[in-house]
Specification:
The complex is a heterodimer of chains A (459) and B (511). Chain A is α/β, with parallel strands linked by helices. Chain A contains 24 helices and ten strands. In chain A, the strands form two sheets. Chain A has a five-stranded mixed beta sheet with strand order 2-4-3-5-6. Chain A has a four-stranded parallel beta sheet with strand order 8-7-9-10, with helices on both faces. Chain A is globular and about 80 Å long. Classes of the chains: A alpha/beta (459), B alpha+beta (511). Chains A and B meet through strand 1, helix 3, helix 4, helix 6 and helix 7 of A and helix 1, strand 1, helix 3 and helix 13 of B.
């Protein structure tokens, strides 16, 4: 190469690398053989066709930071760590088993520690992750305020007057769920223990069919933060469906948010506080399984073992906790129970939440459940497992890419020709609902448990 | 406002302004103020001259010229562990843009390294010598599928699997199936003359290249070949550029031959106690006049690794597993072939033959073959995958040699691959972080190459020479042949700006 075409700049500054705990592990990064098979599954690569926006590229950037070739706080590096959706589609196809999710979450934690940012940013993070998601009383208070905001007509006014565009909160406000009047409280209430009596006299027409000859399986419901407020009806439907499957259900007290968003935002230490609270709450319930109906939460709870691995008091307990966690679909599909008899004549398509299909590798169970409902026609959409762009709070922090993915997803849904789209994660639910509305579609979104519950209740 | 939850991110990539040196000095002071990392590093940053960057921006548009640190780092790799560092990444959308860039490159003596999906296994798209990484990924349209002439005309960035899916919708078939087909780009396939399991029956990529549009290193855009079935007009340039690994021209359009899609596919898995028995069975099958779609081999080490991962009940004491695939348009004929080969296998002392009649059962049998990569990854984090190609009759001898080399250097070297056509993949498992082991790996690789050449074979059947095998080229081809190739390279690329340092020996080993 001709010397005149380039020139050398002597730089003398020290590049920051990864320090302390929660670093992207060398052992994981080493496994990447750069085959590139992750690229065609990565939503940001598919949208940009840029190597930098791909898992292979991002892993190589992390290797560069670890090797001192790239600064931790380099704007490009930071940008890429947050442009990643953490959907883990790459993990699911990686032939070498690279646990990419752990890498990017650790990288974000490193970034947040190195660059705490302005007072506004720090204040906002404290408010959102320590107070709102970290404290269920504050969270519920906020939900009640939003409920009032919606029911009192204030929302209509605010939307009309255009103040949202000024505050740049318009997209975020569009995503707000419609809150139901009553939330589900973490009451410690036990459902179903007494309704499961001797099987011999139970007539086939009763709606609760006990599992013959067995005592009820005791399960604990992870009610969730947003699931127990905005989606309280789905939580109740979950309890009903579990009862129908021959379980007795308890909703333990003192549980709270799973901490998924907190981990994704690079605050592992705060997430650990939340994990400890949940581990304590569920240990006391004595349940065999912890049932969760939100894919994002399920993945986070199953990762508690990894999150708490360095905690002397909680490491083992967290590992045990994680082994008890079951997504509602995988739990139901693994049990023999009588499927609903009454048909629901619906043409549906299924949007696979990333944290169910990629992070938990659950793809058959939801389909088995859908097929068990008579009258249902399940039409598979193309790119059913490509991220919808919700990705936790990604749709708020990265609105452009989120919108592109949302539009892509809505197009596929509409192409499928279904009347209803089924999913099992609140983030996806809201993203799809908002997207369908913006596309002028009348298609509805429904949570898979709500659909099952509907089928049972017809009887 | 809620965006402030995460760090403020620069949305656009803007190229460094002319006073870049100023800006970097300032930012370095900022960093020094909040320092915590203990290792001081003195380094020089090489950068492309601003006027060249501006010209590139004028050709493709500013958003398609990347000069940020993160982009340069991301584009420094391919499917091997070799790293280069480009000075700029330029993403193109047409042959005219490529032509303008190459003319600029010749004028300013800037190196250009073309790249598709960079899934190559020999270093062909690694920008080791710096310069411009020319990304063809945006040229990803299937321009035409001609059902009368049985051709597809595609841009180089089309993913192989995408092309296959599209033509199969119309009852057509594009056979070459490299394992990377879900990500590898057609342009890259042509440049490396990619193979795959089906090559036994259907041939390699070059058998399907009917026409190319190529931009020569000096900037001229030429066409060679086309849709015609027969063509002897002038030199057969399309076969020259195929397999030239991006050193003779940049491919900007490919006309590919298609076949009718076979309607029936069946699979059989045969296990053999001894590798010689497996090899003679392969010969017996071919001699019987049956041409399976593919015959894949897995040696004992490979089977043990896969069994460790999948627990399918594969016989770990068997020296070889053969996976046969048959396809065709008449069910009776395909079944007949399967049954005949099953008989031959038993005649060849196969311990067992499992047959799959349905697609689902086929998938299960193929699972073992497809799980080789993850199975090997469990043993060791890295591997040096070789790609030697020997005459079919030399397969057992070659495998025995590899076993001996593995013992000699105390390495794990599973062998698997396309036994039917003699193209084997000995994979030397290793850990990149262990320099002592890597030294043994290098020696073992050299001995494997020597053994392949001794058997009447060659260094590479489908991965290409690239950076990994260039030092062995003369040993394989002889000096005169290598000189002849160099003359062609010089004739087309007098300033040696297009992907230099690949294929030909430089005296410096790259692994």
């Amino acid at each position: 190469m001709n010397k005149q075409a380039s020139f050398r700049v002597p730089i003398k500054f020290v590049r920051r690398g990864f320090t302390g705990h929660d670093v992207p592990e060398d052992g994981i990064m080493q496994k990447c053989v750069r085959c590139g098979l992750c690229l065609p599954t990565c939503p940001t690569y598919l949208e940009t066709l840029r190597e930098t926006s791909s898992p292979r590229g991002r892993i190589h950037l992390m290797e560069a930071v670890a090797a001192g070739k790239l600064d931790l706080t380099d704007p490009g590096f930071v940008g890429q760590m947050y442009q990643c959706l953490d959907c883990r589609a790459c993990e699911a196809v990686c032939p070498s088993g690279v646990e990419y999710g752990k890498l990017v979450e650790a990288a974000r934690t490193q970034i947040e520690r190195a660059m705490p940012g302005s007072t506004v940013k720090r204040g906002l993070r404290w408010l959102v992750f320590h107070q709102i998601f970290g404290n269920m009383r504050v969270f519920r208070l906020l939900c009640r305020l939003l409920l009032f905001y919606q029911r009192s007509g204030l929302q209509r006014l605010v939307r009309k007057c255009g103040i949202l565009s000024i505050l740049r909160l318009k997209e975020a406000e569009e995503l707000l769920p419609t809150f139901p009047k009553s939330f589900l409280s973490y009451s410690g209430e036990q459902y179903g223990a007494e309704s499961l009596v001797s099987t011999k006299n139970a007539s086939p027409s009763t709606s609760v069919l006990p599992v013959a000859g067995k005592t009820a399986t005791q399960v604990a419901l992870f009610a969730g933060c947003i699931m127990s407020t905005a989606f309280a009806e789905t939580d109740r439907a979950t309890i009903r469906v579990l009862l129908a499957a021959g379980c007795s259900v308890v909703v333990p007290r003192h549980q709270g948010c799973c901490g998924a968003l907190t981990v994704h935002a690079g605050d592992m230490d705060r997430a650990r506080v939340m994990a400890r609270r949940n581990i304590d709450a569920f240990e006391q319930s004595g349940a065999e399984y912890i049932i969760v109906n939100a894919a994002g939460c399920g993945a986070a709870l199953k990762d508690y073992g990894h999150l708490m691995r360095d905690d002397n008091l909680y490491a083992e307990r967290a590992a045990h906790f994680s082994t008890q966690v079951r997504d509602i679909t995988e739990f139901l599909a693994s049990r023999s129970f009588s499927s609903p008899q009454h048909p629901l004549h619906l043409r549906i398509t299924y949007q696979e939440p990333c944290h169910l299909v990629h992070a938990q590798r659950i793809d058959r169970a939801p389909r088995e459940l859908l097929h068990s409902i008579p009258g249902i026609e399940l039409i598979e959409m193309r790119e059913s497992s490509l991220c919808c762009g919700s990705a936790g709070i990604y749709n708020i922090t990265q609105p452009e890419m989120s919108r592109r993915l949302q539009e892509r997803k809505i197009k596929q849904i509409q192409k499928s020709g279904a009347d209803l789209v089924v999913t099992s994660n609140p983030g996806c639910y809201l993203q799809l609902q908002s997207g369908l509305r913006q596309a002028g579609s009348t298609m509805r979104v429904v949570h898979i448990v709500d659909l099952l519950d509907m089928a049972y209740r017809q009887e | 406002m809620l965006r402030r939850l995460i760090p403020k991110i620069k949305q656009k990539t803007v190229p460094p302004p002319v006073n870049t040196v100023e800006r970097m000095r300032n930012s370095s002071e900022q960093h020094t103020a909040s320092i915590q990392s203990p290792v001081p590093t003195r380094h020089d940053l090489e950068m492309l001259r601003p006027h060249i960057v501006r010209e590139l921006q004028a050709i493709v548009g500013a958003e398609f010229v990347l000069t940020e640190e993160v982009d340069l780092i991301a584009y420094s790799i391919d499917g091997t562990w070799i790293e280069g560092r480009p000075l700029a990444v330029v993403s193109v959308a047409s042959a005219e843009e490529v032509s303008a860039i190459l003319r600029l490159a010749n004028r300013e003596r800037v190196i250009v390294t073309p790249r598709g999906s960079a899934s190559g296994l020999s270093g062909g798209s690694v920008p080791l010598a710096g310069g411009i990484a020319l990304s063809m990924t945006r040229m990803n349209r299937i321009l035409e599928i001609d059902r009368v002439n049985f051709v597809a005309v595609v841009e180089p960035g089309v993913i192989t699997a995408t092309l296959q899916a599209e033509v199969e919708k119309l009852g057509l078939f594009y056979p070459p199936d490299p394992s990377s087909l879900k990500i590898s780009a057609i342009g890259g396939n042509v440049a490396e003359n990619a193979g795959g399991a089906r090559c036994l029956k259907y041939g390699v990529t070059s058998d399907y290249v009917m026409g190319l549009q190529v931009v020569l290193p000096t900037g001229e855009i030429i066409r060679t070949g086309g849709r015609m079935v027969k063509n002897v007009t002038g030199y057969n340039l399309r076969q020259l550029f195929t397999g030239a690994e991006g050193t003779l021209g940049v491919i900007t359009e490919v006309t590919l031959k298609l076949l009718p899609l076979p309607k029936y596919r069946l699979t059989a898995l045969a296990t053999f106690e001894r590798i010689d028995e497996a090899a003679s069975t392969v010969t017996a099958v071919m001699s019987s006049g049956i041409l399976p779609a593919s015959v894949e081999l897995m040696d004992q080490t490979t089977v043990q690794c896969v069994e460790d991962l999948l627990h399918l009940g594969l016989p770990v004491d068997a020296e070889a597993l053969l996976l046969f695939a048959f396809d065709g348009n008449h069910e009776q004929v395909v079944r007949g072939e399967l049954e005949a080969v099953t008989a031959i296998c038993y005649g060849g002392r196969a311990k067992s033959v499992r047959i799959a009649y349905s697609d689902e059962e086929s998938e299960r049998l193929w699972r073992a073959r497809r799980s080789i990569a993850p199975a090997l990854a469990r043993r060791k984090p890295n591997k040096l995958g070789e790609d030697i190609s020997v005459p079919r009759s030399a397969v057992p001898a070659m495998i025995r040699q590899v076993c001996a080399i593995a013992l000699k250097y105390d390495l794990l070297i599973p062998v698997f691959g396309h036994a039917g056509d003699g193209n084997l993949h000995p994979n030397i498992l290793c850990d990149r972080r262990d320099p002592e082991e890597m030294q043994r790996v290098r020696s073992a690789a050299a001995e494997i190459f020597a053994a392949a050449i001794d058997c009447g074979g060659t260094l590479s059947g489908e991965h290409g020479i690239g950076l990994l095998k260039k030092e062995f080229l003369e040993q394989d081809l002889g000096q005169d042949a290598v000189q002849a190739m160099k003359k062609i390279k010089l004739a087309l690329d007098p300033n040696n700006i297009l992907n230099p340092g690949k294929i030909f020996p430089t005296g410096k080993s790259e692994f």
